[in-house]
Amino acid sequence: MADFAEIPLTEFDRGLLVRLQGKSVVKALARQSSFQGLPRYVTEYLLAKFVKPESWKEDIAKVETRIRDLLPNPDRREMVKEKLLSTGEVTLIDQVDCRVDLKEGRRWARVPTLDDNHVGVSQKLLEEHSGLLMGGLWGTLKVRYSPELDSSAPNELASFTPFQVGPPDMAEFRAFRSAFSTADWIALMLQSAGYDPAAFPTPRLKMLLLTRLIPLVERNVNLIELGPRQTGKTFLLRNISPRVFTISGGKTTPANLFVNLATGAIGILGSRKVVVFDEIAHTSFDTADGTISILKDFMESGQYTRGNKQFLSDAGIFLAGNLDVLNGQPHPRYRHLFEPLPESLHDSAFHDRLHGYLPGWEIPKISPASLANGVGFVTDYFGEALVRLREDNHHQRFQHLQFDPGMTRRDHVAVEKLASGYIKLLHPDGNMTREEFRAILDMACELRQRVHDQLATLAPGEFRPKRISFKIPDEPEPQPGDRELSMP
User: Fold this and answer.
1) What angle do the packed helices 409-426 and 434-458 form, to 10 degrees?
2) What is the pLDDT of residues 182-228, one digit of tens each?
3) Paired sense of beta strands 303-306 and 309-312, if any
4) Calpha distance 385→379 (Å, rounded)
5) Which one of 20, 109, 130, 458 has the fewest CB atoms closer than 10 angstroms to its CB?
6) CA 245 – CA 314 distance, rounded (Å)
7) What is the mean pLDDT of the chain?
C-alpha cells in the first residue's frame, strides 16, 4: 500500500487505515507548523475531510492555504474589517458561540476574529447548529455587513458550516473495540489522544495517561493531578473536544463559573462537559468563600444555586498543577500532597469531594518523541464518542462487590465512578475478563486511597487511616488498591 508514502507507518497503522476508514487520520500530519494555534480536533477534521492518502502533500498545501486565507492573525483584524465594510461580506474560519438575550429579544453570535460580540444570528441557524448555544463550535462562516438593519449592530451571521464529522455511531464504535485485543485497543486510544504508545512502555503508564480522560466519559467526576512541569497534564483534555474548557490560572468568578446574575448567562460549568483548572496554584476565586462553597456543593451533588434558582450540570472537574519532585517522588518538604493548592482550597471538605488523585510525578515529561505519528481516530469523532459514553451505566457491575466496612459513601461513589470511567475507556463494548475488572478496581481504589491518606494527614481527628479496598465474592481475601504511596 503506497498511500502516505514517506510517512513511516507500521503494519498496525496501515491496518487501522483500512479498518477505520473515514474515522481515522495520520497523526503526524496534524503536527505541521502551519496548524499551530488551531485545536487538534479542528486540524484533524480538516485533514480527514480534505486530505487523500495518494495526494496528501498537495492536499495539505491546499488546507494550509485555506487556513491562512480564512483564519487571519490578530494583526490583520482591521484588514478583515475593511474587507467586510467595502465588500459587504467576509468568509472566515473561527470559533463561534451564541447567546440569547431575552431582555432585547435578540440572538447574538461572538466572532473573535472581528472582535464583535453582537453579530446577529437567526433562529433557523441556531436550530440547525444547536452546539453554537452550548459552548460554541469551530467552523467556516460568512458574515454579512447590513447597517440598514441595525446601525448599532450591523453584522449578521449569514451562514455557518461546523467542523464536525457528525454524531458518532456508538454501535460501530463498540464494534471497533470488539475487533481489537485490549493491548491494541489501548494503543489505538493513546494514538487517538495524540500520544505514541511506545513512549510509555508499561501498562501502568498507559493507564495513568488514559485516567485523564475519565471526566469526559463519566458524569460529574472530580480529579486532581499534580506533578512536574511539562508532563502534558492538560494537553489531552484541552485538545480532544470543544466540550472541554480550560481556565489557566487567574481569577475565577461566580459569574463565569456558575451563572451571571446580571445577564442570566449560564457559566462554564453549565455549558461544558469538563472544566480544567490549569495552573491551579495560581488560580484565585472571587469572593473566595462563597465561590468555593458553591463549588463544593456542585462537586457533591451536581447542582448549584445562584440567586433563587437551582441549576443542574453533569460537568466534570479536573485540577492540574505543578509539584516539585525529588528522585521521581514528591519532594519530602511537602507535609501532604494537597499542599501546592492555593490557600483558598486548603479545605478538607473540598479535598474529600475529589474522587481521585492522579500521581503526576510518575508520568514522564512530554517531548516530540512522545507524540503520536501513527494512525488514530479523528479527534473530533473520538472526543464526541467519548462524551456519548457518558450515557452508559455500569452501576450494576458493582452491586455484588464487598467494600471495606470503613469506607464512607463518598469512598463508594468515588471508586464506582472511577471504575465505571475505566470500563468505558477500555471496554466500551462491555466485555472484559475477571482479571481486567479486578485491575480496573485496583486502580480506582488506589486513586481514592491517595485522597484519603492526605486527609488523614491534614485532619487526623476527622479522618482516620483506613483501607480503600474491595472483595469480589468467591475470592478469599480483599483486594486493596495499589497503595504504595510516596508519603505517609
Assistant:
1) 140
2) 999 999 999 999 999 999 999 999 999 999 999 999 999 999 999 99
3) antiparallel
4) 10
5) 130
6) 14
7) 91
The angle at the Cα of 356, spanning 352 to 358, to the nearest 5 degrees, equals 135
The mean pLDDT of 18-29, rounded to a whole number, is: 90
Residues pairing with 245 in the sheet: 275
Question: Which residues on adjacent β-strands are paired with residue 107?
Answer: 100
CA dist., res. 366 & res. 196, Å (int): 10
Residue type, 409: R
247-260 burial, b at 16+ Cβ within 10 Å, e below that, comes to beeeebebebbbbe
Contact 67, 60 (CB under 8 A): no
Highest mean pLDDT among 94-108, 276-290, 424-438: 424-438
Task: Specify the pairing of strand 244-252 against strand 274-285.
Answer: parallel
Contact 95, 136 (CB under 8 A): yes
Long-range contacts of 148-154 (CB under 8 A, 24+ apart): 149/120, 150/120, 152/118, 153/108, 153/118, 153/119, 153/120
| Of residues 305, 302, 278, 301, the one with CA closest to residue 291 | 305
Q: Which three cell numbers mark 318?
A: 479536573
C-alpha distances (whole Å) from 179 to each of 174, 183, 428, 473 are 9, 12, 12, 30
Is the predicted pLDDT of residue 434 greater than 70, yes or no? yes
Written as nine digits, the cell of 52 is 487523500
Average pLDDT on 244-250 reads: 89
The rounded distance, in Å, linking the Cα atoms of 271 and 416 is: 25
What's the CA gap between 417 and 218, in Å, rounded? 7
Secondary structure (3-state) at 78: helix
**Does residue 485 register a pLDDT over 50?**
no
What confidence tens digit (pLDDT) does each residue in 166-186 have?
Answer: 779 999 999 999 999 999 999
Closest CA to 411 of 369, 356, 335, 350: 356
Neighbours of 487 (CB within 10 A): 15
The kind and range of the H/E element at 109 are strand 106-111
Q: Is the dihedral of CA 254, 315, 120, 124 positive or negative?
A: negative
Cα–Cα distance measured from residue 142 to residue 466, given in angstroms and rounded to the nearest whole number: 60
Pairing outcome for strands 116-120 and 274-285? unpaired
Give the chain's end-to-end CA distance (angstroms, integer). 55
Rounded to whole angstroms, the Cα distance separating 72 from 359 reads 40
Q: Are the C-beta atoms of 236 and 213 separated by less than 8 Å?
A: yes
Give the pairing of strands 137-145 and 89-101.
Answer: antiparallel
